[in-house]
Design a protein that fits this description.
nine-stranded mixed β-sheet, 2 domains
């Protein structure tokens, strides 16, 4: 197999050697397939356990575990097993290729160049393409040990008694299982193994790796979550100027027969899928903006990480979502209008067609006109303390401002005509459900505002009702949205709506400008009609009238000194 060439468009560099691969099959409810995450120093794996953080519970299912593929390499007598080994030998480990589809581990030592390219060709198959090239003038003996580390569940279930493994000589593979009930994994490679063993002892596993033991222990049974270390040992000889490559496979099934079938299919199709994934990367990066010139390297790398994270969060249609949708985060995917707006504003600079499709689908597939935060099964996940099924407010992510951007860039009137009724319904919903008796806008709770737990809402709980707080940023964003709709109406074939939006916007502009007190825009307490003034607190969202172009010239001049406040209080930016 010839070494694969990276896409011309992808900015190849020395990226950080850790990250995620896209598992497009994973979802929060219908299919907790797990996330695919790196394992130092040279591994990747299926993570079906809870991560730390607000959204980290998504990968953990009823059957929960880690199943990791770890690779160690020995060049003659120099071993690369632990992260510290690279430091010990003065070797820089990096990732030359770092997309949502493929991540590589790359290094060079004693004239031998290594590249381990991980990718996910199928939902239940994690594959590593190992490429080794001997540029030295001497023959090199390379030992490659591949390990499946399986177990480590965090919650018990019926059948989580222990772990077992056995060797299958017909497929030259190790099969590992949770007994009495759990997923089955099979580990194999394109080369022929000369030794294979399994152990429940990490110490013994490390001793085997360090000592190059060539023994066969092909059956192992342990009780509890382990983990179980299942190892295949390969030896490769590279003459001077030669290269070798091969695939390493970790495949999953609900039973052994299905796992074996998964391995057979993957062996036949992995290379073709890898080439397809590289082609998709090329297609994206040939259109994506890049940082070039004398930008700091960390900025250039961060640029790639951000774009690839964004790509990873755009999910396939599933359940109630009939269009591609923005998942907000890979662990616990869900639709949130505000975050979708910001993500698609970014994506519109690389793939405006996809950005427009996601924006349209967010409204068209929504459970209600206010676009409640939801998952693929129709469950809503931003229910306020009073039972309100909430979506984000119009100033969180400024979706109307965002929608205007790809339209003006592409002039796509067909898209705008399709989207217009949904935008109109959204604004109608807010007028009918989020205005008080005197017609002032509010948020039901701090979650709905996007500013979880903000002091500005004068309530203790993040989801507690705060309907008495008249919100200046909602007024300003609604004014902007209505002015945008005034422009959209005739383009969308609804000229009769022009007067409607003009009159509605005029009221919102007046409301916004009236919420200016002693040189500052402020929320107002609807119970006493007084501005809400908190000690050492001025939220950056109070500058929304400037962002939306609603503030008067005099108000903008008066607000300028506030930017000094933010320079001294960067927490509020």
């Amino acid at each position: 197999m010839k070494p694969l060439q990276s896409p011309v468009g992808f900015p190849v560099s020395n990226y950080t050697p850790y990250g995620y691969l896209d598992n497009p099959y994973h979802s929060m409810v219908h299919n907790r397939s797990g996330v695919i995450r790196s394992v130092p120093p040279l591994g990747f794996g299926f993570w079906k356990r809870q991560f730390r953080g607000s959204y980290g519970e998504g990968p953990r299912g009823y059957v929960n575990y880690l199943s990791l593929l770890q690779i160690s390499v020995t060049i003659d007598t120099t071993r690369f097993i632990e992260t510290d080994d690279f430091t010990k030998y003065g070797v820089k480990l990096y990732s030359a290729y770092h997309s949502k589809n493929i991540m590589s581990y790359d290094w060079r030592h004693e004239g031998v160049v290594f590249s381990l390219k991980y990718f996910l060709p199928r939902e239940n198959s994690l594959v590593c393409l190992a490429e080794i090239e001997n540029l030295s003038g001497a023959e090199k003996k390379i030992v490659v040990q591949v390990t499946n580390i399986y177990g480590l569940w965090e919650t018990k279930w019926w059948g989580s008694n222990g772990l077992t493994a056995h060797y299958d000589p017909d497929m030259d593979a190790i099969v590992s299982k949770i007994w009495a009930y759990g997923d089955v994994f099979i580990l194999a490679a394109d080369w022929h193994s000369i030794a294979r063993y399994a152990t429940g002892s990490r110490k013994e596993w490390r001793e085997w790796q360090c000592n190059g033991v060539k023994e066969n222990r092909i059956r192992q049974i342990i009780k509890g979550p382990g983990p179980l270390y299942n190892v295949l040992h390969y030896e490769l000889v590279l003459p001077p100027g030669s290269s070798k490559s091969g695939m390493v496979y970790l495949c999953r099934g609900k039973n052994e027969e299905w796992a074996r079938a998964q391995l057979s299919v993957t062996r036949n199709r992995a290379l073709d899928v890898l080439k397809q994934q590289l082609a998709l990367d090329e297609q994206f990066w040939s259109q994506c903006p890049k940082l070039v010139g004398d930008w700091p390297l960390s900025w250039k790398h961060g640029w790639v990480y951000d774009w690839e994270t964004l790509r990873m969060n755009i999910r396939r249609p599933i359940g109630i979502f009939k269009h591609p949708w923005d998942a907000m985060q890979v662990h616990s995917p869900r639709v949130v209008l505000g975050e979708t707006a910001l993500d698609m504003l970014t994506m519109s600079y690389a793939n405006p067609k996809l950005a427009k499709e996601v924006l349209f689908g967010t409204f068209a597939d929504a459970l209600a006109p206010n676009v409640p935060c939801a998952r693929e099964d129709g469950s809503v996940n931003m229910i306020g303390a009073d039972g309100s099924e909430c979506g984000t407010a119009p100033m969180w992510g400024f979706p109307f401002h965002v929608i205007q951007t790809p339209y003006e860039a592409t002039g796509d009137t067909v898209w705008l005509k399709q989207l217009y009724p949904h935008l109109k319904a959204y604004l109608r919903w807010w007028l009918e459900n989020r205005t008080d008796e005197e017609g002032w806008f509010h948020c039901n709770n701090s979650w709905e505002s996007g500013q979880d737990g903000s002091r500005r809402f004068l309530v203790k709980g993040e989801g507690d009702p705060a309907e008495f707080v008249r919100t200046v940023d909602v007024e300003a964003s609604m004014a902007e949205a209505m002015l945008i709709m005034k422009k959209f109406a005739p383009i969308a074939g609804n000229s009769a709506d022009t007067t409607l939006w003009h009159n509605l916007a005029r009221r919102r502009v007046q409301n916004t400008r009236s919420m200016f007190f002693k040189g500052k825009f402020r929320d107002v307490d609807g119970r006493n009609k007084q501005p809400i003034i908190l000690r050492d607190f001025y939220d950056v969202m109070f500058l929304s009238p400037l962002t939306c172009g609603i503030a008067t010239e005099e108000q903008m001049k008066a607000v300028k000194p506030l930017f000094r406040f933010y320079m001294g209080n960067p927490f509020w930016l």
